Amino acid sequence: MSAAELIADFRPQMIKFARLQLHDDAAGEDVVQEAIEAALAGIDRFAGRSALKTWLFTILRHKIIDSLRERGRTVQISSLERDEEELDETLDGLFNASEHWRPDTRPRPWADPHAALEQRQFWLVFETCLEVLPARTARVFMMREFLGLETDEICATLSLTTSHCHVILHRARAGLRQCLTNGWFGAEPASC
Questions:
Q1: How many helices (H) and strands (E) does the chain have?
Q2: 70 and 153 in contact (C-beta within 8 Å)?
Q3: What is this structure's pTM?
Q4: How far is CA 140 from CA 48, 56, 113, 153, in A?
Q5: Whole-angstrom Cα distance, residue 189 to residue 131?
Q6: Burial class of residue 190 in the structure, from the number of CB atoms within 10 Å of its CB (0-12 exposed, 13-18 middle, 19+ buried)
Q7: For domain 77-185, which CATH number applies: 1.10.10.10, 3.40.630.10, 3.40.630.30, 3.40.50.1980?
Q8: Is it true that domain 3-71 has CATH number 3.40.50.720?
Q9: Nearest to 167 by CA among 44, 47, 85, 53
Q10: Which pLDDT tens digit goes with each residue over 65-89?
């Protein structure tokens, strides 16, 4: 299989990731195309020290960051607030009046989270959990954790206050934890 064919296999995942970050299908397609072109142009420099997918997504990550910085665009807040309110309602049911975990909703300890990271199926569940988060919440989480942007840059890009950004990140982590507990750690994972 040629390098171009190998790279093309990752295109659907790359598009999904880029669209979530840029909130624009056309812009997502553009940065993926730029990333693929850059990968093909630099394939001779790929030393194989990491997986091909990791290398491709690193290139894509840089293209997305460049696009976000270049566009300096903002998102219509009103269209995304509804999703955050729905997540608030879900998460509110997990805590008591003093904002502590209700005993029946307290997360169970995860058996071996490090071993789970090595399993392909875990990452499929993780991607699904990201998809069920409200779009803005997932976007802020991915900007911070996947793209590695600092809080001040996220805030400037999305017109958020620092405290609001931290609240969104907290909601994202709580939502992901709940989803992963129910979808992976709470059930017996299939062996891969």
A1: 10, 0
A2: no
A3: 0.51
A4: 31, 21, 23, 11
A5: 20
A6: exposed
A7: 1.10.10.10
A8: no
A9: 85
A10: 888 877 654 444 444 444 555 555 6
